[in-house]
Design brief:
about 425 residues, mainly alpha, 21 helices, about 80% helix, globular
Length: about 425
C-alpha cells in the first residue's frame, strides 16, 4: 500500500522477533542443563511450554484483534514479549526452573499475539492475489532470525565454561552453587537487551501510520462456527499442524540424525550443518517469493511438499552423507510452507481473518506432539531413520492440502471466466 512503507517494515520486523524467541530455546535447553542441573527430558519442557503458550493464547489474540484491530493485537503481543524477557532477570537470581518456564510462557504468549496479528496484517497490506508472495517475503525475515538466533545465543548465553561430571563432583557445595548461579545469570543480559529492542519497536508501531483494516463485521452471527464454515480454513489448520510438527521434529533431531548416520562427526560439525540447513530455509523463502511471480502458490506448495516426501524417503532408507544431505535439504523445501498454507487458509475471510488466523496459529501445537512421537519411534526402532517416516507422512498431508487448494483455485477461475 502506498504511504505505508515504514509501517510495513515495522510489521515485517515482528517476524524476526518471534524467530529469535523460538530459536533461543535450543540454546536454553543446553544452558539450563548446566545452570539448573536438569536432564534432557526436564530441559525439553522448554519447547513444550513455548508451544503451549502459542496454543492457549492464539484464540484470545484473535478476539482482541477482532474487537480493537491489528495494531492493538501487536502492541499487546509486544508488551507480553517484553515482560516475559524481563522476567528472565529475577528468574536467574532465584535459579528456579519454574520461574524460567513462567517467564518463557509469558514471552511465548506475546509471540503468539504477534504471529496471529502480523501474518494476516501482511496479507491485508496489498493485492489479495499476491498475498502468498508478500507473506513469503515477510517470512523470509523470520528465516533470518532463525539463522542468527543460535549464533547470537551461543555467543552471549554460553559462557564457554564446561565441566565434566568428575570436576563437578569434586567441587564443594558453595563452589557448585556459585558455578550454577553464574551460568543462570548468563541469560540476563541477552534477554534484557531483547526486551529493550521490543519496547522500542512497540513505541514505533504505536506512532507509525498503518492501514486501518476492518476486523469486525456487521453480521450478528459472526462467531467461531461461522468462521469454521469458510472453505479451506479447516484443511489449512490441519495442514499447518502437520507442517509445524514435521519442521520441529526434523530440526530437533538434526544433530542426533547426523551422529547416527556418520558416527565420527563431531557435535560442533553437526551443529554447523544444522546452521547450513537453516540458511537454506531462509534462502528458500526469498526464492519462493520470487518464483510465485511466475508459478501459482498452490502449485509451488504441492511441488515442494512432494519433493520433501521424496527427501524423507531417501533419508530414511539411505545411510552416511547421502542420508544427511537429503535430511538437510528438507529445510529448503519447507521454506514456503507455513506462509503459503497460512495465506491460503485465510483467503476470502475478510474481516474474519483475525479469528481464522488464531485457529491456524493454534495448530502450531503440532510442534509439541510430533517430535515426542518421533522419539518414541526412534527408541523402539533403535535409530532415527525409521522415525523419519512420520515427517514423510506430515509432508504428504501438506501435499494433499496443496492439491485440494490448487483444484479449488482452478475451479473458481473457470467459473469466473464463464461468467465474463
Amino acid at each position: 500500500m502506498p504511504g505505508y512503507r515504514l509501517g510495513f517494515m515495522l510489521v515485517v520486523s515482528l517476524f524476526f522477533l518471534w524467530a529469535i524467541a523460538g530459536n533461543f530455546n535450543d540454546i536454553l535447553i543446553r544452558q539450563f542443563q548446566k545452570a539448573l542441573d536438569l536432564n534432557r527430558a526436564q530441559a525439553g519442557l522448554i519447547q513444550f511450554v513455548f508451544y503451549i503458550g502459542y496454543f492457549v493464547m492464539a484464540l484470545p489474540a484473535g478476539l482482541v484483534m477482532r474487537r480493537w484491530g491489528y495494531r492493538a493485537g501487536i502492541l499487546v503481543g509486544l508488551a507480553l514479549y517484553a515482560i516475559g524477557a524481563l522476567l528472565f532477570w529475577p528468574a536467574a537470581e532465584v535459579r528456579e526452573y519454574g520461574a524460567f518456564l513462567g517467564a518463557l510462557f509469558v514471552l511465548a504468549s506475546g509471540a503468539a499475539f504477534l504471529e496471529t496479528a502480523a501474518n494476516p496484517y501482511i496479507v491485508a497490506f496489498g493485492d489479495p492475489a499476491r498475498a502468498p508472495q508478500r507473506l513469503n517475503l515477510a517470512q523470509g525475515f523470520n528465516g533470518v532470525g532463525a539463522v542468527l538466533a543460535p549464533a547470537i545465543g551461543g555467543l552471549f548465553i554460553f559462557s564457554g565454561v564446561e565441566h565434566d561430571k568428575g570436576t563437578l563432583a569434586a567441587m564443594t557445595a558453595s563452589q557448585l552453587a556459585g558455578y550454577r548461579l553464574g551460568e543462570a545469570r548468563m541469560v540476563q543480559l541477552p534477554y534484557l537487551v531483547l526486551a529493550c529492542v521490543v519496547i522500542v519497536i512497540g513505541l514505533a508501531i504505536a506512532m507509525a501510520r498503518l492501514p486501518d483494516v476492518q476486523t469486525r463485521t456487521a453480521e450478528r452471527h459472526d462467531g467461531l462456527r461461522q468462521v469454521l464454515r469458510t472453505p479451506g480454513l479447516v484443511p489449512a489448520v490441519i495442514a499447518q499442524f502437520f507442517y509445524v510438527g514435521a519442521q520441529v521434529g526434523i530440526w530437533s533431531f538434526f544433530v542426533d540424525f547426523v551422529k547416527d548416520s556418520v558416527p565420527t562427526t563431531p557435535e560442533r560439525t553437526a551443529a554447523y550443518l544444522l546452521s547450513v540447513s537453516l540458511f537454506l530455509f531462509m534462502a528458500g523463502r526469498f526464492i519462493g517469493a520470487g518464483l510465485m511471480q511466475r508459478i501459482a502458490a498452490t502449485r509451488l506448495l504441492l511441488t515442494f511438499a512432494c519433493i520433501n516426501v521424496a527427501l524423507c524417503a531417501v533419508a530414511a532408507t539411505a545411510s552416511g552423507w547421502v542420508a544427511v544431505a537429503a535430511f538437510g535439504l528438507t529445510s529448503l523445501f519447507m521454506s514456503i510452507m507455513f506462509p503459503t498454507i497460512f495465506a491460503l487458509g485465510i483467503r476470502g475471510l475478510g474481516p474474519r481473518a483475525a479469528i481464522g488466523s488464531s485457529l491456524i496459529i493454534m495448530s502450531i501445537i503440532g510442534g509439541a506432539i510430533v517430535p515426542p512421537l518421533m522419539g518414541v519411534i526412534a527408541g523402539r526402532a533403535g535409530g532415527l531413520h525409521v522415525a523419519l517416516l512420520l515427517p514423510l507422512i506430515c509432508f504428504a498431508a501438506v501435499a494433499a492440502f496443496a492439491f485440494r487448494s490448487d483444484r479449488s483455485t482452478v475451479i473458481t477461475q473457470s467459473r469466473t471466466e464463464d461468467l465474463v
